[in-house]
Amino acid sequence: MRLRFVGLLVGAFVFLFPFYYMLVGSLQAEPDPSVAGAFPAGNLTLHNYSEIDKAISLGRSLINSGIFTGGVILGTLVFGVLAGYALARLQFRGRGLVFHLMLLIQVVPFQLLTIPLYVMIVRSYGLADSYLGMILPFAINSTAVFVFRQYFLQLPAELFDAARIDGASELSILWRIAVPLVRPALLTGVLLTFIGPWNEFLWPFLITKQQDLQPLAVSLTNYITTVASRAANPFGAVLAGACVLAAPAVALFLVFQRRFISSNLSSGVKG
Amino acid sequence: MRRGPLTRVLGEHPVGTAFVTPYVVFIAAVFAYPLGFAVYMSFHDYFFAAPGAIVDRPFVGFDNYATVLSDPAVRRAFGNVLIFLVINVPLTVILSLGLSTALNSAIRWRTFFRVSYYVPYVTASVAVVGVWLFLFNSNGLVNSVLGPLAPDPSWLVNSHLAMPTVAIYVTWKQLGFFILLYLAALQNVSADLYEAASMDGAGRWKSFLNVTVPGVRPATTLVVLLATVTGANLFTEPYLLTGGGGPDGASASPVLIMYQRGIEQGNPDVGSAIGVLLVIGVLILALLERRFVGSED
Q1: Residue B247, preceding bond cis, omega within 30 degrees?
Q2: Per CATH, domain A46-269 is 3.40.50.300
Q3: For residue B183, which of A194, A219, B69, B266 sits 20 to 30 Å off, Cα-Cα?
């Protein structure tokens, strides 16, 4: 029993230490890779944060990340809820087909579609360096559609029958009755949709060349690969940027950890 | 209930079709069409041209595939992914099953452990890569702890250690998700079986092998498949951690080469051929894994 607990503790240390080290490194004026450097006594500064802000404009990058993520969440909430409701509660031709498509595309590796998507969105539609081009391939999160469907399925059928007999349209049933009853599902959908675009690197990296449109994950990467070698304390600045990028996702996760974990379970188990 | 002919064709709630239309259009535009387009490009001499320009892009059969297969960098990248999978997949299964079993019977600090294992998974790879670069640097903390045992050249610039280090990084990053999958699966293993095993005099290790491992086999199949797909998609880590697949291509992944050939060097036809080969490779691996891990179903 004791051995098991020690194993869990070692695991937790391995998982958490890099985060602690990220924070400590971002606050040190000089990089100190020695063992003692991991436990600084005083001498902490916010200098690295102003350095990275000067280099990549943190505010602008955060706004871009926010617009990218917000667009995906909005698309998922509007169109994903509509689709999830129809898949759960409406009988129409092709429902089974759409349902199976939804499951199928979860196993299509997105990276493999990057070349054709790049050709289409950048070359054919001229959407390079635009928020629309960034959002489009992620616009509706299929895992969220699946979660919405599961929640709508759990509502009692009598509720819908009664409203239909009263002559309510499907849209008003969805908006007035179903949506208010599945608010937790909406939160779950938002949370699991959030970490996708917020952390996404490859796609926005491919289509944004203008620095003032790049999300933080992209501008920080460009800093790591190009500027960092010439900076005075490159690691400090990189770690400061990393903290800013990590903070919103980690904070959301800590506050809503129960919802996160249950949502990933339901999406994971269906395979 | 009487059903008119229209109801029979469209279903009871034809408005449902309208509700799913945006989603179906999205799937068609972002998944189905690009998938077909990738296959099309891989069989044609496809190149970038100004929008609207009419250019001839002739059918070239398997030329692009021949180019890809004779490219030593591509072959190396596919070999690298195999090294990656050989390290990452077993390590993921063993560690996540071990930790989730321990966590399942832990009473104290359950939430703390669960949360700490899951934090790397929700954090952007770009952010954690920054710390790993710092930790595994030539004079980084890991090497100062190891002292004389530190490898030379250091982890990420050593051609034998670069890919294994990337594999370990990805294992660490994804493990929390797989631990949760196993935790869910463990809830379905009947407590009676453990009782029966202990009645038969099985120790903790024996009952783990004979009850837990077979009990969570469907989850293991899923974990193996998902880890394989994640490995095949590897891009950000070699791009950043080893400075673009270094040293000298030792940690390049197929997606990285696909990006270099397809977009940086402007040969989307060759890039698509790499992508199609990668999909075929993943499908074959997935079928093999299902056969050997999944079995008896």
Answers
A1: yes
A2: no
A3: A194
Report the distance separating Cα B262 and Cα B272, nearest Å.
7
Name every chain A residue with its beta carbon within 8 A of the beta carbon of B271: 115
Render each residue's pLDDT in chain A as its tens digit; 271 residues.
678 888 899 999 999 999 999 999 899 887 777 777 778 777 788 888 988 898 888 999 999 999 999 999 999 999 999 999 999 999 998 899 999 988 888 777 777 788 999 999 988 888 999 999 999 999 999 989 988 998 899 888 888 888 888 888 889 999 988 999 888 888 888 988 998 999 999 999 999 989 899 999 999 999 888 876 666 667 888 999 999 999 999 999 888 887 766 655 544 443 3
Q: Chain A contacts of B49, Cβ < 8 Å? A: 123
CATH class, domain B63-294, is mainly alpha
Q: Is A90 helix (H, G, I), strand (E, B) or coil?
A: coil
Contact A231, A237 (CB under 8 A): yes
B94 CB-contact burial (10 Å; exposed 0-12 / middle 13-18 / buried 19+): exposed
pTM: 0.88
Contact A31 B134 (CB under 8 A): yes
ipTM rounded to 2 decimals: 0.88
Question: Which chain A residue is nearest to residue B17, measuring alpha carbons?
Answer: A92
